[in-house]
Design goal:
The protein is of the alpha/beta class. It has one domain (15-155): Protein of unknown function UPF0759 (TIM Barrel), CATH 3.20.20. The chain is 36% helix and 11% strand. The protein has helices at residues 15-27, 47-55, 92-98, 110-125, 136-139, 142-155, and strands spanning 36-37, 59-64, 83-88, 129-134. A 4-stranded parallel beta sheet has the order 1-2-3-4. Helix 2 links the parallel strand 1 and strand 2. Helix 1 (15-27) packs parallel to helix 2 (47-55) and helix 4 crosses helix 6.
Length: 176
Amino acid sequence: MNRVYRANWRRAVQTSDILDQLIPFLEKLPKEHRFAVEIRNSDWLDAQFACVLRDCRVALVLQDQGWMPRPTELSFDPITADWTYIRWLGDRKGIERITKTWDKVVVDRTNEMSGWVDVCYETVRRGVKVFGYANNHYAGYAPATIQQFRDLWYAKGLPELGRSQRKGEETTLFDL
């Protein structure tokens, strides 16, 4: 069962303010489950934050939103666990000015997705499992976003994308 816990750190000014609250919480998490932390303030995204997550074996959520840096723009390694979680979120307000029906692509994300293919390939090569999720607000139609990723993957001549064969394990788009 997946659970989402949300914290509101709007009053926190520095990464250390967040970590003072986050570390005790992370230390209490059950070790038999996977957890990820998503932040949406680029000022808090630094090597110290990543190190804390790595020490606790918690994945840093990688995301594609206008104000957040992509993994290739970071000065530290954003992979903090033996798996990672990607969210292709897009610009909710911007895309809703274009459409409110989610049945077709309305924003061309080819360049961004090509970069994500490279990030995912390098991550998988490290032995890290990748879970990727697309939001309709990313390009207009989440299933097409996933298909575009897969098409770009194969266009680059990368290995066959497989499916997990272990019973009870969640299948990902990136299992090799």
